[in-house]
Specification:
Two copies of one chain form a homodimer. Chain A is of the alpha/beta class. Chain A contains 17 helices and twelve strands. The first copy, chain A, has helices at 12-23, 39-49, 59-71, 83-91, 109-117, 127-144, 153-161, 187-191, 195-198, 208-216, 218-231, 269-277, 291-294, 308-319, 323-339, 347-358, 367-387; strands at residues 2-7, 28-34, 53-56, 79-82, 98-101, 121-124, 148-150, 170-177, 238-242, 248-254, 259-263, 296-298.
Chain lengths: 394, 394
Amino acid sequence: MKEISILGSTGSIGCNTLKVVEAFKGEFGVAALGAGSNTELLAEQVEAHRPRLVSVSDDESREKLIFELKQRGILNLPLISTGVEGLTEVATCDRVEIVIGAVVGALGLLPTYHALEMGRRVALANKETMVIAGELMTRAAERSGAELLPVDSEHNALHQCMRGEKREEIKRLVLTASGGPFRNADKQTIENATPAQALKHPTWRMGAKITIDSATMMNKGLEVIEAQWFFNCSADEIDVLVHPQSVVHSMVELIDGSIIAQMGVTDMRHAIQYALTYPARLPSQLPPLDLTALSKLEFFAPDTDRFPCLRLAYQALRRGGTMPAVLNAANEVAVAAFLDEKIRFGDIPRLIEAACDAHQISPANSLETVLNADRWARDWVTQKIANQTTAVTV
Amino acid sequence: MKEISILGSTGSIGCNTLKVVEAFKGEFGVAALGAGSNTELLAEQVEAHRPRLVSVSDDESREKLIFELKQRGILNLPLISTGVEGLTEVATCDRVEIVIGAVVGALGLLPTYHALEMGRRVALANKETMVIAGELMTRAAERSGAELLPVDSEHNALHQCMRGEKREEIKRLVLTASGGPFRNADKQTIENATPAQALKHPTWRMGAKITIDSATMMNKGLEVIEAQWFFNCSADEIDVLVHPQSVVHSMVELIDGSIIAQMGVTDMRHAIQYALTYPARLPSQLPPLDLTALSKLEFFAPDTDRFPCLRLAYQALRRGGTMPAVLNAANEVAVAAFLDEKIRFGDIPRLIEAACDAHQISPANSLETVLNADRWARDWVTQKIANQTTAVTV
């Protein structure tokens, strides 16, 4: 039995990971769970999986969790830590073989880094970790021999497409994008989209932040940056293709002109299972993909005029250094402000572009440097939004 | 430089193989060419590639070839053999590392078998060899350690999809079919289709026999049988999906629900190059696939009511032994009769079904047995067609 720990257990990926664990009784044990403040769900997970260690956001959540656990009649309480230190304890917990990195945003950075330094397999669903600190993460994995496996559906698909291939025989990666809820919307509609409209994703059910990223296509931009580090590619070797059906999860073009594509149903449990069982594949209990029921698959070039976030991401990737960290942090703050109805949907790319233009690049050669760039961008965009109370747009 | 020999050099696959050889100057040398009676094209190939040995159908073709070569001012003539013996000499020619098996019909059987017995890589485009004697071929390859690589686009695609996969983790093979020229035709139109109509293939340019097989979907039926031997599968593990765009060349479903597909342009040179360079991939000089230009991929379940040949092939595969050999031979005779306008298009499956029903199965445990079954079916169907001069249908 392999012991796993989950960073972000009460989120969408975390819950699905526990479903996969339940589907493979005896294969995996849950040693540690890291969550935020959803103590009710965490208590339920603790009752079902009995981890040795859990982590929550702060002391208040800790007290709540203890109360919830006692309510459930659980006498033998796990260790309960808090904050980023708590998450790091979850990531580095004794005897754990696989760490699932699924917290949202920059919070996963340090815990993931420590898990990689210890040589643990990290199944990474947290895009931001690789966007902000891809070089540091891949170097840490190289030094320790840790496996760094992608859990998000596109990179997981790319990983599968490359199983039998040599890096030097790969010409191009093609990330597919659903196109989000505004795929066919005009510029004006996109500019003024409401949170309710932007949260209606056509094919995937995910958390709020990542769903908004899908609507702006920043999600795909972050994936392009992530792909560079996962697969040792340059921006010129990574393309994006809009594919509304989300059936082809991604593709690889080989130097001989052959294209290998991975397809499946839009259920994250497939990618999670793959990352847990790799290099083996185990029988899935999910319904298989019915290609005849789909009947039609479409592919379009993306429109960076209506979706400037994709262009901004390529630009940040090419500029390099701390620029992707700034792009990501600016995006996090802007998306949160949009969800809070403080800014328009169309302000999201404008704020990001302004932050990137204002940033002085440094080489991304230490966690301190990238975290400083992250903080700088958060402050800069927060200030910009605060100043905006009098202005209509940036 | 790897020396190759080609069985069927003046056919579609043979000519494309020589184009691939020309595109990779210095990588491959042509040691031997086996052809039929197209001595003009063969003479051109001899002039361009200077093989040590060639083979033609008979003495008349031999004389013609000598005349053609002298006309071209070639003084240093290659050895010129004839018949199946000649083809076998081509397949077993000294120092040859790769044999391309691309003659049409049952003729390729013996030469291919001998090449496999010698441990040579055989890049096989001749479907009938595996349909008639798949078990004998794969056993010969196992004994000598020969590599048996598929060149036709679907099996080549399956081979590529399986590069990084374990046999026991493969759940299902999905062969795609263009659906041929009669994909949307009604039963009556198909019944009375003319050779000119049946020869108009929507996506692939191939020889006449294989193009008719595509129109009846027997081509796909033969591929299902072939797939059993290439990939060690049962009939239940092989599915067919109509995909008019012929962009997805085939797919593999893994036990975890993931589907790996291979895509490419509809140019046989890709599969030929793959079989020549495997396990390496070399840069192709052909234009790449443009997925955005395609925009739409469709998939449908096949209709065995309008295309009974597919049903007959599954039936023969399940019955086993000499039955696939009978199916194939009956098909060859029926197709030739259709092209000669002796029978209707709709008679092709009726003749095959009648031959299969009349056949007494034996285990396919020797070349003699399968060749006897092949001869029996040819005679039976030929006789049936001769008797038909008075009857309208079988």
